[in-house]
Please model this.
Amino acid sequence: MKKIVLITLTVLFSIKLFAFDFSIKPLVAYEFATEKLFNEAGGFSVGLGVDISPVTIRQRDKLFITGQFTSTNFPTKAFGVQSLIDGDLGIGYSFRIADRFGITPELYAGLWNYLGSDSLGVSSVSGISFGGKIYADYYMSPSLTLSLFGGYKSFYTKPTPFINDVQIGLGLKYSLTRGLFSNNYIQIEDSLVNPLFPVFYAHYTDEPFGEIIFINNEDNDITDVTVSVLVEAYMANPYTVATIPVVGRGEEFDVEIFAFLNENILGLLQPKAANFDVTVEYNSLGKRQSVTHTLPITILSRNSMTWEDDRRAAAFVSGKDASAQRFARRVKAVVKNELKSNVPVNVQYAAAMFCALKAFGINYVVDPSSAFTDNVGTAAVDFLQFPYQTLTYHGGDCDDLTILNCSLLEAIGIETAFITVPGHIFMAFDSGLSLEEGRKKLDKGYYIEAYGKIWCPIEITLSQDTFGLAWTYGAREWKKAGEDAQLIPLSEAWSKYLPISVPGSDTSIDVPSNEEIIKYFKEAKYY
Model:
């Protein structure tokens, strides 16, 4: 008993309700009548059937209701060609034994009428008909099936059948549902779509922002599968993200999603709810098919970032930021003739930038809702300023000031690096000295040896103090953090997170006067 219940439940749960299919099928057949009146020769019939399948069983078998209208002409010696017409309703089961082949048995019953002939004195006769067919099906495409069939039909009257005949014929079945209407046979089982960060727009060409799991609900294997993504407002064309040679019937396939975004996305100043299209194209029984799914996505503002990887902030550092570039080049030109011979050139230019920012009025401002110490190592969204914004606002928090100082030095060709310690980020610059020179000219404990260079750490939050104090504090924080401290050269971080310049960066900035810059520069002390 338990076994019977289990089998019944298995069959029931394998039925796909509402897998509706509406098909038409023209039929031609050669029929052999067994009665004397028509036994001189066989006749030809033409018919038209309509099949309605409300359910799919065992994943791709179809139970259907059929209606058929047939006209048959029988040649006779005595009466010439005589015609029978009949209309039937029935039920069938399409058993798919392979992707291209199937067997379909069919039973039906209905009404028939023999027209007769007044001129020949042959009366009209009518009655009920019943019979059946069995089709050998060849699936030419998802919507078209060619069939060879054989059948038996009885045109019944009392006390004996009017005619019994055997049929052999061809049928061509066309699914209007598949042929004329769009159907989603490649469905999404699950999806994970992360927000888009405009600052990393070039990054998404090679790095995924989500994953989608599809399932092949076609009645057959599919081949040459391609998946493409289109975020319409920020992409010129769909971007192909996956190609798969074969996906079996009922199989799932995972696709990581990428996007070839354009610079228009950098214009977003506020988060935006949007949609993107994922299109799956594939061959099904030799025919190219396509289905498009539209999914929601959040596009964050261009200042948004998360700190799972500290290198990500490198995207905000740009020596090509127009405002930073003008500021840095102006300062360099002003102090160029004031340089001392006994201090490394890079150190003096770094001091000049620090002093010019002090004269400019740059301040360290903590944003309680967007602090590095709260967000480091997390997926929480932080707000980072581009260099021109920090100059415009005359301040920022530790990550903003780090980005600005690095950008200024990179603008005049001095390599820089991020330094991260638990709960804090600051910067370092390349002294320009070789390892041997650095060990001789700089006091031990005031520099960092890494990547074959001598780096000078600067605590940029001391923006209104002296350059020497900022250098001393930077060196102290590095030493105190020990193994928890990390130095990340911008050149290394840029290999993964490209620097960008955003619209609006060419903002007019009132650089301090030459006299102010020189005054503060001459007062600079070096630890």
About this structure: The chain has a mean pLDDT of 89. The two ends are 90 Å apart (CA to CA). Residues 338 and 513 are 15 Å apart (CA to CA).
